[in-house]
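Aim 2 progress update. The chain analyzed this quarter is reproduced below.
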Amino acid sequence: MIEATSCGGVVIFRGKILVLYKNYRNKYEGWVLPKGTVEAGEEFKETALREVKEETGVQAQIIKYIGKSQYSFNTPQDTVEKEVHWYLMMADSYYSKPQREEYFVDSGYYKYYEAYHLLKFSNEKQILEKAYHEYLDLKRCNLWGSKKYF
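Predicted structure tokens:
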């Protein structure tokens, strides 16, 4: 068994959520949240921000830690046990550019219910739900976008 750790973000701009569409040689297709593997010597927050930037071109700010998801999948060589740490993030525009090298062919900001139904994996839907409720709470308290929260 191989253990792997990734970090990612639920990126929000004006109430809409950033998602990516991945198509790997027509073998894998689906909408996902941006995330990636922690590199040696990197803090989880650094990984999350770097991966969002690499996969979407978005320069985001971390608002708060949301939690982690865990899942496993099989490769021809072994079983991978993956843990993903998630952060609620804020973008400063609707700009995004999917990273072609990672087989992302589309990206965009969608309303919560649209993003929720687009997402392929149930663990990402759960993280989105948790992050969006945090976002709504911050907005209700007039803390969303407030520099004092960072």
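The first strand starts at residue 2 and ends at 13. The chain is about 25% helix and 40% strand. These observations will guide the mutagenesis experiments scheduled for the next reporting period.
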